[in-house]
Fold these 4 entries.
Entry 1:
Amino acid sequence: MNNPISKHPIKTLTPLLLPLFLRMIAIHMAGALPPYVPSEQISLQCGSAGPKFVRDSRYWGGDIRSIFFPFEHQAARNNSVVKDSPLSSYSGQPPYSSARLSRFKFTYTFPLSAGPVFIRLYFYPASYAPNFNRSQALFSVQAGGFTLLHDFNASATADASASDTIYREFCLHTESGHNLNITFTPSNASPDAYAFINGIEILSMPPYLYYTSPQSRDGVTHVGSENTTRINNNTALEMVYRINIGGERWISSDQDTGMYRNWEEYSAPKEVYQSSRSKDTSTDMNVTIIDRYNLTWKFPVDSMFAYLVRLHFCEFDGDVTMPGYRVFNIYIDNQSAEKMADIIEWTGGNERPVYRDYVVFMSGNPAIPKKVNLFLELESDLLNGYWVAILNGLEMFKLSANRSLAGPSPDPPPIAPAKGTPSKPSTRSRTPLLATVVGVACGILGVSVLGFLVFRRRRKVKSTASDGSSSLPTHLCRYFSLAEFKAATQNFNQSFIVGVGGFGHVYKGHIDGGATPVAIKRLKPESSQGAHEFKTEIELLSQLRHRHLVSLIGYCTDKNEMILVYDYVARGTLADHLYQTDNPPLSWGQRLQICIGAARGLRYLHSDAQGTIIHRDVKSTNILLDEKWVAKVSDFGLSKVGTATMSKTHISTAVKGSFGYLDPEYYRRQQLTVKSDVYSFGVVLCEVLCARPAVVHATETRQMNLAEWTKSCHHDGELDQIIDPNMKGKIETECLNKYVEIAMSCIHDSGMERPSMNDVVRGLEFALQLHQNCGERNEDAFASVPGCTTNESVQCISETIFSEINDPNGR
């Protein structure tokens, strides 16, 4: 096994962090060293005159008549005011028991020594009588030359998180001889806007807890790149997630290691390594989705920022004692971050905590910042290990860009007026009403203009200017000139053709000075596909990124051409390795892995993408295989997009697809559903099992549908007649039973009786485990193994011994 430490150095226990990590693993130990003691610690209760004791042994000193009284930037009559918090559960509870508020800028100054610090801001967005309505709290916060928050809508943020209070944690590096200034500035967007703060906490941290040591030769692995990234002192960080994976409760700051960090439910410092997520478990946490053999989390984050993702691991299972027992792959933002992760190999033994750091950039539309989903997936490598993946804890930090960490505030939830109560304008101020009216009018105008532009773009997809500019927005993906593609393919020389389809020819070429191999798909004039499919492919693939979806690089519309360019996928299509080929037959393990990969890609389209996406043309020639045999679903020209919630169960549309793969229910009713993709994928499963095309040419005058033929043989117990001869004696009987069960359920005549793609993934992963239990490690030397299929055992397989997959309607 290759040692990954050489490429990605492990964070080991330095003397400075030793107390931190000893406390983390003080589970089977009689004692531990004292926790980290900060050299700087300020806990400020804003708007208060005296210290108050709080549960975590911190004293919150008031800012009135103290050295931390804020500097007012206006005349005395415009100074900030202090208010006690309204009567609630937070009354008398620092740091939320009082607040400082102002419609003008004010600054706190803190004399600090040089080094990294935590800055924690505490907000209780309530209405502070008589003049500060909670909905008018709109302000920015700057600290140490960084913008931490910009036009921060406190009430909308609290409402969106269903919490009465807001807690924000930042990290930045203070310089020697410079005070730390934290400035609160009301927004110019409204004359009634004001800034407020309830509590400020500043705490020194170990120097290289999150920052890169200048003595370190290596930086942090940059996901999706061969480069590394250094977290230098000129970078500010914002903590966005700190989670105890597998924990059953949140860990409060007083249980941390002297840094008073809060670990959300599911997270902890010491306890973080006691619990881990490694089984098929359901959860109501909205950031987590658990599969049987791989773990997937979905984290909403701001686009156009880079993120530091820290994963905490510790092996406590006494049965996992040697390298190679628990091996898994790590994917972040659907890109490979770590291959064959092995905790024992990293640490040398049990009960030894370790963390791994990764940096990933979350792209988006720079003109319209919004939330995007960052996916984290741990995939069990059952070919190389014996145990499923684990994760004990996670921390995620946003990294500053252009000295800013500010992201968009969430939209406030709509408030319905009381039934029978007419709405009336406020008598206190007419200005906000006027601003609202103007804003609504501008919004309607903007939507109208946007609608017109979208309509124009739909009408002019195929039109191009003589200079090569396209009506398709170039921000979606890279735009190429026709000259670049001619150079990459020697003017579309036929010797460069690597594939032919309904769209046209596919050429292999090289771009970027020959450094990057790509697949170039050129629409032929007589193709039945055209501008609509071309546009659909660009708009979908440019916004989708997943390990098991083909990656779109760019497009060209010069001189009325329609050309798409993708990452080059070296091994061609799945069909190329099943039938009518000189390629050696795929092993059963390879076939299962390929099917699982393709199923995961479809599951992402159905469940995890922005809105439900129905591929509508799933077939073996649209499943590509890269150099490492990783399956990638391709060709999205016929795809349909539903709503994010898919409240309608189907999309009424004309029937399109490929003969032999078409869902018969879709064909009859012209009602497209995600179960239509499931049917097509079931046909692919039949192809993989039988090594035959979807339409079998039995004689010169007769064609036979493979799906129907497989169902007939399955019904009669005659699967041995059509199963790939290369697989006989090489598939464990229980594995074959499970596989055929999945395939038959996918091609059920009734869509309601078919499983979801999530259930298909689970079933195939279970089939892979059964295959591994059969003892196969090297199929080239595979002999007849007890419990594996023979001609006689295959003949005994019929529909009478199969049960339906649980919950065939999906989730």
Entry 2:
Amino acid sequence: MTDAAGLAALAAGHLDLITAPFTLPRSRILVFRSEDGDGVRVHTSEYEKPLDECRLLDGVTVTDAAGQVLPVSDVLPWRIAFGSSPAWVAGPSTSSGTQTGPPTLTFDGPAALSIAGPEGTRVELRHPDGRIETLPLTPAGIRLRLGAGRTAVTEDGDHAAALAACEAQWLEWFAKCPRVRTDLQPMTAFCWWVLGANIVELPSLGDARAVVPSKIGYVGLWQWDAYFIAVGLRHGDPELAREQLDIAFRFAGADGQLPDVVHEQGILASSDDLPESDRATLRRAGSQIADPSQPVPLTKPPLAAWALRRVLEVEDAPDWARWQLDRVIRSQDWWFAASDLDGDGMPEYGHPYSSGLDDSPVFDGPIPTAAPDLGSYLVCQDREIAGLLARYEPDADATRFVTRAQRTQELLLRMWDATSSRFIAFGAGEQIRSDTVLGLLPLRTGTLPDDVRDALRTALDDPERYALAWGLPTVAASDPDFSPERMWRGPIWINTSALVAEGLEASGFADRARELREQTVRLVVHGGGPHEYYNPHTGLKAGRATTAFGWSAALFIDLAVRLTEPDPHS
């Protein structure tokens, strides 16, 4: 089952049209199972708009010649089949199956659907404005085109050609899917589908392909997400992985700051780009350090060099690497020049959004926030830059990056509280004693003093704090702010688990790192897919978490590939 068709079949087992909609790479159309279960509904995918505001068709219901509803019976990445008559057993999915097989729905390019069925079958289309169209189906099909003003326009179709083209597009994508350990291959195939399904075009960037976190509510390229997504994509499509970094780096400000989000209407790089209500909230949360009347930069943690190195590990691109490395260096310099708001040498988060963990209890206190995760990211990024310069610009002097990394680590260690044996964050100079995953990320430096390193390992092995049954919570279970369901306040996230596993390995705990990686992929399989975050007690999707989430899918793939390779430490 490791050819393209077999991998597509493995992915199809998860296409329930509820947590995983029917869609196509580059398309903004999403098809879900209708709430009454009799058919499907169709939405568009738009930046910062909920599905209820993006209705294209409230219902698409197929009936047979007797007027009986034909429910969804089977889903493949390239088509939905309706009805379960014995005469309509699966059969070919190409044109030879469209005349005598069941009614099917497919894509006809990114901006249209095609539906067809045997003579006598009909389709009812319920429009958001209340109109109901009932149309006869034929083997040639009806084309449902996305028109102006979010309307569905019916046209004559060529269903056989549309179905064949859609199938070919998906099989081409699955041909690139990484081959991994047998027990991890079905979920890897589904995660690869998620990455393909989440490809969109951003009109402001021409034909650039952004792999968004989700077509359900996250239709843009978030800087941090792009890094994690690129790390997973590199195993099957390194060109597309590089494209994610190119988009993330392309809109750096004159001072080097990278924006938080690149989206179809522009970028989000400052509090001035937020709605007025958000800006007012930010002003109310101002501190004696940050001037609340001034715009606050919005970005994401500095993992750019890490992502750049990992993408280049799979397929080298020296000229491209040198071009991007210059942008990474400028963004790293920006942190020290513009985000060290109290001038002590250690940059701070000027806004919770810039941390990526914006709902963490660490940000319940005043802002700006000096946090141990940011310090460790900066240490690692300066070292990564030095390594990339040695590889791509051997004549360049990397001394300042090595020296700055050493200085930043010294400042990071000042956040260590020996009494509680953990790193402490500071909000506007005040201690923030929440016990969170941010305090574990300094393990990534690999150069912590032995007593600090060992204390963090002890915390990870403590069932009262971080050693929960299904994985690593984002807030210690013993912390009063712990919540198993609330975003960043207890649930398990795949990205923080993967980063802490890197830290364990870098700090000399290779076996424990592998245990955490195995536990993380087991969580995704148990939870039924790459969700945004998971309840650490049940191992299932948290109630408000997004499904088919980009970085969870990408990092599952990366972990699966790594766990399939021979263990270099054994």
Entry 3:
Amino acid sequence: MPMPVPRTAAVAAAVALIIGLAAPAHADTTSQRQRDFAAAAAEFGVPENILLGVSYLESRWDTNAGTPSTSAGYGPMHLTDLREAGAATSHHDEGTEDPRGDDARPARHPQAGPAAPPPALQTVDEAARLLHTDAGTLRTDPAQNIRGGAALLAKYHTGDWYEAVAKYSGSTGDAAQTFADEVFDTVKSGIARTTDDGQQVTLSASPDLVVPQHADRTPPGVECPRRVTCESVPAPYQELPGNDYGNHDLANRPESQRIDHIVIHDTEGYWDSVLKLAQDPTYVSWHYTIRSSDGLIAQHVPTKDVAWHAGNWYVNAKSIGIEHEGFAAKGTWYTEAMYRSSAKLVGYLARKYGIPLDRAHIIGHDNVPGTVPSTIKGMHWDPGPYWDWSHYFDLLGAPLGGFGLPGSSLVTIDPDFAKNQPVFTGCDSPGTPCAPRGSEAVVLHSEPSDSAPLLKDAGLHPDGSASTMDVSDVGSRVATGQRYAVAEVRGDWTAIWYLGQKGWFHNPRGAKVAKPAIGWVVTPKPGLATVPVYGRAYPEPEAYPANVPVQAITPLPYTLGAGQQYSSAGTVGSEYYYAVTFDLADHVVVKGKLKYVQIQFGHRIAFVKADDVRIAPAF
């Protein structure tokens, strides 16, 4: 193992090694994308493995069907063109979700206003000038896009490839160095994959590469892992007129109550605008925001405190909320830099608080249940069907799927992200088909046929109509990593129990979208025809002290029927965090004797009373 060396020497050694290893990496492949990288590297004098490493950290070498990333980047080299991508509207300002989701307080529906994109999202113009071509060609032609990225790297190079890579990120300071570190780590370890358009690309490992070493970049008081760049952008805890306050609640977690979930969100806005919202006492709150271009992490609320982010007070009180710069409705893609930074943060938090690394505890905002029947329709659905949960859990070191025996009565949803391309609508305008894109979502039908109607969701569609293919409609959709009990199998079709119905999906041999799983399932106890389902695990009335209003235990408009089974995430105690005043001394954690079981009931999680169900291992 090389001995640690000063940063300047380390970079010099790295550059020397990279140049020495710059022989074409495509000798054993006929991949056109690989040849494009080699040709561009040679043309502009950029080490091929540096070019491959930068592209991987931006796009994983994908084309993403010509759609922009969540930070307006196009193609394998993520050349940014905000002029073409445009500013997306915010689903956070639609619907009726109250981010607090607490019946003890008036609903809060703050409006974010238009998201102002930063002017820096326009590197495609500089690349076009260097190549004497137009921005449209660089957005749509992968080979020209790679040439454009190589030209930019060559321009940024002033004798130090590490610094050129850092500048390519579009950031400065520690955030730019974090991006460069990730690129150099990728070059050192090597990687190979098949892209979203079927190209085989390989970055050969450089095990002797010396990656520059840096001091811990975490400022004092910020809860972050090493090897990422974090900053503190505190959310205000502030009294407001009208006996109100914002924009979160003080607490003493985990001593006062366990933290059971981490909730993944997208911002529906650009970095600068979102950070201003996080500092607005009249707005709502979340614990962290992660930037798309370089993975920079900003912490707003200490994890011991409760942020107002998930639309369900029970979940808020027991979770950490992480926002990712991006737009779910645009059908865009998330950068590898952000995925990696997020995975490091989630892994750090999961270890710190003992949170299981599974899809029952690392959930999307779209997996958070409505609190009562009237709130279901307004619940948010980010980060959307284009968040790559499978890749994300690979980065977490907790791969999804494939751990059960054939024929198991429990399955994990695990489609091939790139090949799985359901045709959703409404990404850009209502009813308009979204661009074909890889997706983590598998659509369910009421019968084993692609032409059969989708399932009904009594909460989302109380009029009794079937669910739709609108990108925001999660009423007949399962997500990668979620586990469900098998109800029936007919040929290449599998049915699972879902919202009290059988939901069918195509699961042919050789192209499985669900893998056998191991785990526990719940079913109603003998003698019970149906079991109520809840969006919160609140205590029994007798548990509340005299000064705390009793919170209703209100069932959702679904039932779990006899003979049906649902995947169990374990038994949880009943809790309610009473926090309606600015003074922490008035806050009370109410814990009851009532026990619940968290289940995967539909696209969202839910709870049933432990006394109503029998828990058994899946076979």
Entry 4:
Amino acid sequence: MMRKLGKALIALLVLVAVVAIGLMVWEPLSVAVATPPPPHRYDSVIARDTFGVPHIFGRTDPDVAYGVAYAHAEDDFATLQEAVAMSRGRLGAMTGADGAKVVYALHLLGARATVSRDYMKQPADVRALLDGYATGLNTYAARHPGEVRLARLFPVNGQDIATGFVLRTPFFFGLDQYLGALSGDTPLPREAAGATPDAPDPRALPAAQDAAGEGNMNGSNAFVVAPKRSADGFTRVVSNSHQPWKGPVAWYELVVHSGTGWNFAGATFPGVPYPVLGHNEHLGWTNTVNRPDLVDVYKLTLGQGGDTYLFDGKQVPLQATRVWLHVKIGPFVLPIPKTVYRSVHGPVIVNKSGAFALHYGGADQLRMVEEYHRLTRAGNFAEWQRALAIQGVSATNFLYGDAAGNIAYFYNAAFPNRKPGFDYRNVLPGDTSGDLAAGTVPWGQVPRNVNPASGFLANANNTPFQAAGEGSEMKPGDYSPLLGIETDTTNRGTRAVELMGKDGSISAADLERIKYDTGVSKLSWTARWYDDIARVDPQGDPALVAAKALMATWHWRFDGNNPAEALAAILLRAGQSWHYPRKAKKDPRTELAKAAAYLTQHFGRIDPPLGTVLRLRHGQVDLPLDGAPDVLRAASTWDEAEDGRLVVNHGDSFIMFMTWDKAGRVSSTSIQPYGAATTRPQSPHYADQAPLFVAHKTKPVNFWPTDLRRNVERVYRP
């Protein structure tokens, strides 16, 4: 009997071992290997400047794209692989549950189906560019097999690169918030729930200003000055887009030069074959996230079997597709079945409350791939506007300046066509075509502010009706409420217009001072939040009495020169966590107590210097920072380290100052929080820009080859 039990146990252990091995190896064997791009010999040259920033030269644009991929892989191949795994539906197998959620979105939005249908419709030069980039990744992977994180992930092709664009684009205007809310059966973002967005303080609107008059809560800043407002008659653009300091949407700086006349300096994201902001010889721009209401939610009336829905009096089949999400759990990859649904409106999520369809701006199209490239190649304002009019980029503000002295702000969005008489901020009935319209609002109706009389423009994720100062603003009444333009303000937006409006002759030094400003405007929402804190009743609590007394000494800045700044910064983060997402206001008494307790626990006092608390840490680099959430010197989010330090991970990231002189010649400087090689600790450029970044300093971009030759570290062919 014991012998039989022993044999059974051995057999069971063998079976478990076989299953375990199968779970470890089945996923790569189950995936189809992509067809690589057509064979082509790419001729690229990479010149690294003294900060390791790659300047990529090529005879053609695809030659350059090949070099872009190879250079980026040298500096951050780990993150590039995540971008590729996302596009190929394998991110869950690489990173686990969080990656599987992204793959679910990939299937739900039909990103690969969109690319399969539309890829060959793209211009041949754009497809060649994507193929060149994919080949650069394949070449690096083949030469460095030990760095490849997932078997059979390579080769990739141009379709894989294009899929990443389709999937990520709607997340810039917050579609992911709707997906998360519906999947979790939790309340929708406030626009969809029918609440009116927070109106700005009337005193902060441009019409009442003196001389001048968050995409997500982390935000971005942009500043543009025309020659007539500039102290020296130059045109200036400041790019200050806020992104995470590492990861799949971290900025990567580069300069490209093609023999066909494509010359551009700026930054890109992992998986993108060209810069998406910066400048060429003639013009430049930057982006900030805007928050138009581009998502409409419809509740479907399902049939008795749940496989149809009522639409215009008929039962219509609910499209259902079974997909498998591959989820890494420890050493294993488990297959998780999931069904994705689709109606005539768009993707459908079924939860306990019912079936909800999403209809959103810029859905199911691939035009952004061409648009971004055409923008970088534009030679003047008219050409640049024609590229923007492609309307492939679903959202984000564009702030522009050029050598001819033009400045402009385009509140860019692919506004869905909507019908009067329906409240698109609420969940709509999905059983009728009466509230559903196809297509996008024409380009001519997209809000814009071109060459305002004030001579300046700014945006910091605030309403577009606060950008240029008194007498120069767009008027809300000129635009249909069906566009869903936000009316929210941020402290950064109010402060930027406030500072620029008071300066009648903005010099380069003035603009730099404004960009690094750490102040809180007395006209902003932040002032009202701090007023609420000042009115807190301590009720005899000594800790609250001390905290209130300290806050009363604060000088309304985060420059490191006042003992209340660390406490004020934590409180501002608490306020930002409810204000920008339009959530219920937090209790100021509770937040004051929590902030004081945190500082006391970790520092033994409530008044440690800001630079002691707020840190830039990367590898062995550990430096003090100034700034705070929602100030122009942005330290938006942070991790709480074991020693209590607040280690910033998001905020001011890639910063670029662009200038066109009176002769129309461009020059620029830039800076990153870490360096060019953010995931390569052995590289001298892992964190070499950090000391400059914390000191509010920049480095030369060396856009012109003659300047690069004096500042080159190495030159090679990849």
